[in-house]
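Recall the central idea of this unit: under ordinary conditions, the amino acid sequence of a chain determines the structure it adopts. In this exercise we apply that idea directly, starting from the sequence alone.
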Amino acid sequence: METFELTTITDEMQSSITHMAQMRNALIAFTKEVLVKDQDYGVVPGVQKPTLLKPGAEKLMNLFGMSVEFECTDRVLDLQSKFIAYTYKATARNKDGRIVTQCEGSVNSYEPKYRYIWMEKPKPNQATQDLMKAEGNGKFRKSGGSWIWVERTENPDLIGLQNTMQKMAQKRAFVGAMLLATNASEFFTQDVEDMGFIDIEGTVIEEPKNNMKAKEVKGTVQQRESATPAEAKAAAPKAEEVKPAEVKAAEVKVAEPKVSKAKAQAKTETVESVIPAPTREAIAHATSVAALYLIHKNNVDLQQDEQFIKLLSTKKAELKKGIAA
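Accordingly, the structure predicted from this sequence is:
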Protein backbone atom coordinates (compact mmCIF):
# COMPACT_ATOMS: atom_id res chain seq x y z
CA MET A 1 0.00 0.00 0.00
CA GLU A 2 1.45 3.31 -1.08
CA THR A 3 1.58 6.25 1.27
CA PHE A 4 1.81 9.87 0.25
CA GLU A 5 3.56 12.41 2.41
CA LEU A 6 3.28 16.14 2.11
CA THR A 7 6.89 17.32 2.26
CA THR A 8 6.46 20.98 1.47
CA ILE A 9 4.16 23.51 3.10
CA THR A 10 4.07 26.75 1.17
CA ASP A 11 3.79 30.14 2.82
CA GLU A 12 0.24 30.45 1.49
CA MET A 13 -0.74 27.11 3.02
CA GLN A 14 0.84 28.03 6.34
CA SER A 15 -1.07 31.31 6.30
CA SER A 16 -4.32 29.44 5.69
CA ILE A 17 -3.59 27.00 8.50
CA THR A 18 -2.88 29.85 10.89
CA HIS A 19 -6.05 31.65 9.82
CA MET A 20 -8.22 28.56 10.30
CA ALA A 21 -6.72 27.90 13.72
CA GLN A 22 -7.45 31.49 14.73
CA MET A 23 -11.06 31.20 13.50
CA ARG A 24 -11.59 27.99 15.45
CA ASN A 25 -10.18 29.47 18.65
CA ALA A 26 -12.37 32.54 18.17
CA LEU A 27 -15.45 30.33 17.73
CA ILE A 28 -14.69 28.37 20.90
CA ALA A 29 -14.25 31.55 22.95
CA PHE A 30 -17.30 33.12 21.28
CA THR A 31 -19.50 30.13 22.09
CA LYS A 32 -18.45 30.05 25.74
CA GLU A 33 -18.46 33.78 26.47
CA VAL A 34 -21.13 35.31 24.21
CA LEU A 35 -23.77 32.85 23.05
CA VAL A 36 -26.70 32.19 25.39
CA LYS A 37 -28.48 28.84 25.63
CA ASP A 38 -32.16 28.84 24.55
CA GLN A 39 -31.64 32.26 23.00
CA ASP A 40 -28.77 31.87 20.53
CA TYR A 41 -28.83 28.08 20.33
CA GLY A 42 -31.09 25.26 21.48
CA VAL A 43 -30.23 21.85 22.90
CA VAL A 44 -32.40 19.01 21.60
CA PRO A 45 -32.44 15.68 23.50
CA GLY A 46 -30.93 12.87 21.45
CA VAL A 47 -29.01 15.21 19.13
CA GLN A 48 -25.25 15.48 19.56
CA LYS A 49 -24.83 19.12 18.54
CA PRO A 50 -26.86 22.15 19.67
CA THR A 51 -29.03 23.83 17.04
CA LEU A 52 -27.96 27.32 15.98
CA LEU A 53 -30.83 29.83 16.12
CA LYS A 54 -31.21 33.14 14.27
CA PRO A 55 -29.93 35.42 17.09
CA GLY A 56 -26.78 33.29 17.36
CA ALA A 57 -26.28 33.41 13.59
CA GLU A 58 -26.57 37.19 13.68
CA LYS A 59 -23.87 37.36 16.33
CA LEU A 60 -21.62 35.14 14.21
CA MET A 61 -22.15 37.46 11.26
CA ASN A 62 -21.12 40.47 13.34
CA LEU A 63 -18.12 38.64 14.82
CA PHE A 64 -16.62 37.96 11.38
CA GLY A 65 -17.71 41.29 9.86
CA MET A 66 -19.93 39.76 7.19
CA SER A 67 -23.04 40.95 5.38
CA VAL A 68 -25.87 38.86 3.92
CA GLU A 69 -28.12 39.43 0.90
CA PHE A 70 -31.38 37.53 0.21
CA GLU A 71 -32.89 36.51 -3.12
CA CYS A 72 -36.22 34.72 -3.63
CA THR A 73 -35.48 31.86 -6.04
CA ASP A 74 -38.87 30.12 -5.95
CA ARG A 75 -42.39 30.98 -4.77
CA VAL A 76 -45.72 29.12 -4.91
CA LEU A 77 -49.00 30.73 -3.83
CA ASP A 78 -52.00 28.50 -4.55
CA LEU A 79 -55.03 30.08 -2.86
CA GLN A 80 -57.38 27.28 -3.87
CA SER A 81 -55.43 24.47 -2.20
CA LYS A 82 -53.97 26.83 0.43
CA PHE A 83 -50.46 25.77 -0.45
CA ILE A 84 -47.66 28.28 0.02
CA ALA A 85 -43.96 27.64 -0.55
CA TYR A 86 -40.91 29.90 -0.51
CA THR A 87 -37.26 29.31 -1.31
CA TYR A 88 -34.67 31.98 -0.56
CA LYS A 89 -30.96 32.12 -1.30
CA ALA A 90 -28.69 33.84 1.23
CA THR A 91 -25.36 35.21 -0.04
CA ALA A 92 -22.74 35.92 2.63
CA ARG A 93 -19.99 38.45 1.81
CA ASN A 94 -16.86 39.42 3.75
CA LYS A 95 -15.68 42.95 4.56
CA ASP A 96 -14.20 43.32 1.07
CA GLY A 97 -17.48 42.40 -0.61
CA ARG A 98 -16.23 39.00 -1.77
CA ILE A 99 -18.77 36.17 -1.73
CA VAL A 100 -17.87 33.68 0.99
CA THR A 101 -20.76 31.24 0.58
CA GLN A 102 -24.36 30.86 -0.55
CA CYS A 103 -27.13 28.76 0.96
CA GLU A 104 -30.81 28.17 0.16
CA GLY A 105 -33.63 27.72 2.65
CA SER A 106 -37.22 26.69 1.94
CA VAL A 107 -40.54 26.39 3.74
CA ASN A 108 -44.07 25.29 2.82
CA SER A 109 -47.52 25.41 4.38
CA TYR A 110 -47.81 21.62 4.60
CA GLU A 111 -45.17 21.44 7.31
CA PRO A 112 -46.91 20.26 10.51
CA LYS A 113 -46.02 23.42 12.46
CA TYR A 114 -48.04 25.51 9.96
CA ARG A 115 -50.65 23.08 8.66
CA TYR A 116 -52.10 22.16 12.05
CA ILE A 117 -53.19 24.01 15.19
CA TRP A 118 -54.38 22.77 18.59
CA MET A 119 -57.98 23.70 19.43
CA GLU A 120 -60.01 23.11 22.57
CA LYS A 121 -62.74 20.51 22.04
CA PRO A 122 -65.27 18.70 24.27
CA LYS A 123 -63.58 15.76 25.93
CA PRO A 124 -64.54 12.53 24.11
CA ASN A 125 -65.09 9.14 25.72
CA GLN A 126 -62.16 7.14 27.04
CA ALA A 127 -61.80 4.89 23.99
CA THR A 128 -61.69 7.88 21.64
CA GLN A 129 -59.18 9.62 23.90
CA ASP A 130 -56.87 6.61 23.81
CA LEU A 131 -57.10 6.36 20.02
CA MET A 132 -56.50 10.08 19.41
CA LYS A 133 -53.55 10.18 21.83
CA ALA A 134 -51.98 7.17 20.13
CA GLU A 135 -52.37 8.88 16.74
CA GLY A 136 -50.97 12.19 18.07
CA ASN A 137 -54.23 14.02 17.35
CA GLY A 138 -55.45 14.67 20.89
CA LYS A 139 -53.92 15.72 24.22
CA PHE A 140 -54.57 17.39 27.53
CA ARG A 141 -52.98 20.75 28.26
CA LYS A 142 -53.15 23.15 31.15
CA SER A 143 -55.02 26.42 30.64
CA GLY A 144 -55.99 28.90 33.34
CA GLY A 145 -55.16 26.51 36.15
CA SER A 146 -57.24 23.63 34.78
CA TRP A 147 -56.74 20.83 32.26
CA ILE A 148 -58.53 21.01 28.92
CA TRP A 149 -58.78 18.60 25.99
CA VAL A 150 -57.28 19.84 22.71
CA GLU A 151 -57.28 18.28 19.25
CA ARG A 152 -55.00 18.81 16.27
CA THR A 153 -56.99 20.34 13.42
CA GLU A 154 -56.29 21.83 9.99
CA ASN A 155 -55.22 25.47 10.26
CA PRO A 156 -58.05 27.55 8.71
CA ASP A 157 -55.78 30.58 8.24
CA LEU A 158 -52.83 29.20 6.28
CA ILE A 159 -52.94 32.14 3.85
CA GLY A 160 -52.52 34.50 6.79
CA LEU A 161 -49.16 32.85 7.51
CA GLN A 162 -47.70 33.88 4.16
CA ASN A 163 -45.40 36.54 5.62
CA THR A 164 -44.38 34.25 8.51
CA MET A 165 -43.31 31.50 6.11
CA GLN A 166 -41.48 33.97 3.90
CA LYS A 167 -39.43 35.10 6.92
CA MET A 168 -38.82 31.47 7.93
CA ALA A 169 -37.36 30.61 4.51
CA GLN A 170 -35.03 33.61 4.81
CA LYS A 171 -34.05 32.59 8.34
CA ARG A 172 -33.19 29.03 7.32
CA ALA A 173 -31.08 30.27 4.43
CA PHE A 174 -29.37 32.80 6.71
CA VAL A 175 -28.52 30.31 9.47
CA GLY A 176 -27.23 27.80 6.93
CA ALA A 177 -25.05 30.44 5.27
CA MET A 178 -23.52 31.48 8.60
CA LEU A 179 -22.72 27.87 9.50
CA LEU A 180 -20.90 27.44 6.19
CA ALA A 181 -19.19 30.83 6.11
CA THR A 182 -17.78 30.60 9.65
CA ASN A 183 -17.01 26.85 9.73
CA ALA A 184 -19.34 26.59 12.73
CA SER A 185 -20.78 23.22 11.67
CA GLU A 186 -18.24 21.62 14.01
CA PHE A 187 -20.11 23.13 16.95
CA PHE A 188 -23.71 23.56 15.74
CA THR A 189 -26.29 22.00 13.45
CA GLN A 190 -29.34 23.31 11.64
CA ASP A 191 -30.69 20.05 10.24
CA VAL A 192 -32.91 19.23 13.22
CA GLU A 193 -35.06 22.29 12.77
CA ASP A 194 -35.04 22.23 8.97
CA MET A 195 -36.09 18.60 8.75
CA GLY A 196 -38.87 19.13 11.24
CA PHE A 197 -37.76 16.42 13.70
CA ILE A 198 -38.05 18.95 16.49
CA ASP A 199 -40.08 22.12 16.37
CA ILE A 200 -37.73 24.55 18.11
CA GLU A 201 -40.22 27.40 18.03
CA GLY A 202 -43.37 25.35 18.55
CA THR A 203 -45.67 25.48 21.55
CA VAL A 204 -45.25 22.57 23.94
CA ILE A 205 -48.55 20.89 24.73
CA GLU A 206 -48.42 19.52 28.25
CA GLU A 207 -50.33 16.52 29.52
CA PRO A 208 -51.62 15.81 33.00
CA LYS A 209 -49.01 14.16 35.19
CA ASN A 210 -50.11 11.19 37.25
CA ASN A 211 -48.29 10.33 40.45
CA MET A 212 -50.15 7.03 40.72
CA LYS A 213 -48.32 3.74 40.60
CA ALA A 214 -49.38 1.27 37.95
CA LYS A 215 -50.59 -1.31 40.48
CA GLU A 216 -52.95 1.24 42.09
CA VAL A 217 -55.01 1.79 38.92
CA LYS A 218 -56.82 -0.77 36.87
CA GLY A 219 -56.85 -0.53 33.08
CA THR A 220 -54.41 -0.20 30.21
CA VAL A 221 -51.30 1.95 30.09
CA GLN A 222 -53.03 4.45 27.81
CA GLN A 223 -56.05 4.66 30.16
CA ARG A 224 -53.80 5.45 33.11
CA GLU A 225 -51.83 8.05 31.13
CA SER A 226 -54.95 9.78 29.81
CA ALA A 227 -56.51 10.25 33.25
CA THR A 228 -57.05 13.86 34.25
CA PRO A 229 -55.79 15.11 37.65
CA ALA A 230 -59.33 14.83 39.06
CA GLU A 231 -59.69 11.25 37.81
CA ALA A 232 -56.27 10.37 39.17
CA LYS A 233 -57.20 11.71 42.60
CA ALA A 234 -60.45 9.76 42.61
CA ALA A 235 -58.67 6.55 41.62
CA ALA A 236 -55.95 6.83 44.28
CA PRO A 237 -56.54 4.78 47.49
CA LYS A 238 -57.29 6.71 50.66
CA ALA A 239 -54.95 6.45 53.64
CA GLU A 240 -57.65 5.23 56.04
CA GLU A 241 -58.55 2.34 53.72
CA VAL A 242 -55.18 0.67 54.28
CA LYS A 243 -55.52 -2.01 56.94
CA PRO A 244 -52.89 -2.58 59.68
CA ALA A 245 -52.34 -6.13 58.44
CA GLU A 246 -51.48 -4.79 55.01
CA VAL A 247 -48.99 -2.34 56.49
CA LYS A 248 -47.31 -5.12 58.47
CA ALA A 249 -47.11 -7.29 55.37
CA ALA A 250 -45.52 -4.44 53.45
CA GLU A 251 -42.84 -4.02 56.13
CA VAL A 252 -41.63 -7.63 55.81
CA LYS A 253 -42.01 -7.85 52.06
CA VAL A 254 -38.87 -9.12 50.32
CA ALA A 255 -37.27 -6.40 48.19
CA GLU A 256 -37.80 -6.91 44.48
CA PRO A 257 -34.73 -7.28 42.24
CA LYS A 258 -33.50 -3.94 40.99
CA VAL A 259 -33.86 -3.28 37.28
CA SER A 260 -31.17 -1.25 35.57
CA LYS A 261 -32.13 2.20 34.31
CA ALA A 262 -31.42 1.18 30.70
CA LYS A 263 -33.64 -1.92 30.92
CA ALA A 264 -36.43 0.04 32.61
CA GLN A 265 -36.26 2.69 29.90
CA ALA A 266 -36.29 0.05 27.17
CA LYS A 267 -39.30 -1.59 28.77
CA THR A 268 -41.16 1.71 28.94
CA GLU A 269 -40.37 2.47 25.31
CA THR A 270 -41.66 -0.96 24.28
CA VAL A 271 -44.97 -0.44 26.08
CA GLU A 272 -45.64 3.17 25.09
CA SER A 273 -44.31 3.28 21.54
CA VAL A 274 -46.87 3.30 18.73
CA ILE A 275 -44.40 3.13 15.83
CA PRO A 276 -45.41 0.42 13.34
CA ALA A 277 -42.83 -2.28 12.64
CA PRO A 278 -42.50 -1.38 8.92
CA THR A 279 -41.67 2.21 9.87
CA ARG A 280 -39.01 1.04 12.33
CA GLU A 281 -37.48 -1.17 9.64
CA ALA A 282 -37.51 1.68 7.13
CA ILE A 283 -35.62 3.90 9.58
CA ALA A 284 -33.13 1.14 10.41
CA HIS A 285 -32.37 0.48 6.71
CA ALA A 286 -32.26 4.14 5.62
CA THR A 287 -29.04 4.96 3.77
CA SER A 288 -29.31 8.76 3.62
CA VAL A 289 -30.61 11.76 5.56
CA ALA A 290 -32.95 12.47 2.64
CA ALA A 291 -34.56 9.04 3.17
CA LEU A 292 -35.13 9.89 6.84
CA TYR A 293 -36.74 13.17 5.81
CA LEU A 294 -39.21 11.33 3.58
CA ILE A 295 -40.04 8.85 6.36
CA HIS A 296 -40.72 11.76 8.71
CA LYS A 297 -42.79 13.63 6.12
CA ASN A 298 -44.92 10.58 5.24
CA ASN A 299 -45.75 9.70 8.86
CA VAL A 300 -47.76 12.74 9.92
CA ASP A 301 -49.47 10.85 12.75
CA LEU A 302 -46.11 10.06 14.35
CA GLN A 303 -44.55 13.51 14.15
CA GLN A 304 -45.52 14.23 17.76
CA ASP A 305 -44.23 10.87 19.06
CA GLU A 306 -41.09 11.20 21.17
CA GLN A 307 -39.75 7.73 20.29
CA PHE A 308 -40.26 8.37 16.57
CA ILE A 309 -38.24 11.59 16.81
CA LYS A 310 -35.55 9.84 18.84
CA LEU A 311 -35.21 7.00 16.29
CA LEU A 312 -34.88 9.46 13.42
CA SER A 313 -32.32 11.59 15.25
CA THR A 314 -30.24 8.57 16.32
CA LYS A 315 -30.21 7.10 12.81
CA LYS A 316 -29.31 10.49 11.34
CA ALA A 317 -26.35 10.76 13.71
CA GLU A 318 -25.19 7.26 12.69
CA LEU A 319 -25.38 8.18 9.00
CA LYS A 320 -23.41 11.37 9.52
CA LYS A 321 -20.81 9.51 11.57
CA GLY A 322 -20.41 6.96 8.76
CA ILE A 323 -19.98 9.71 6.18
CA ALA A 324 -17.33 11.43 8.32
CA ALA A 325 -15.44 8.16 8.80
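The two ends are 20 Å apart (CA to CA).
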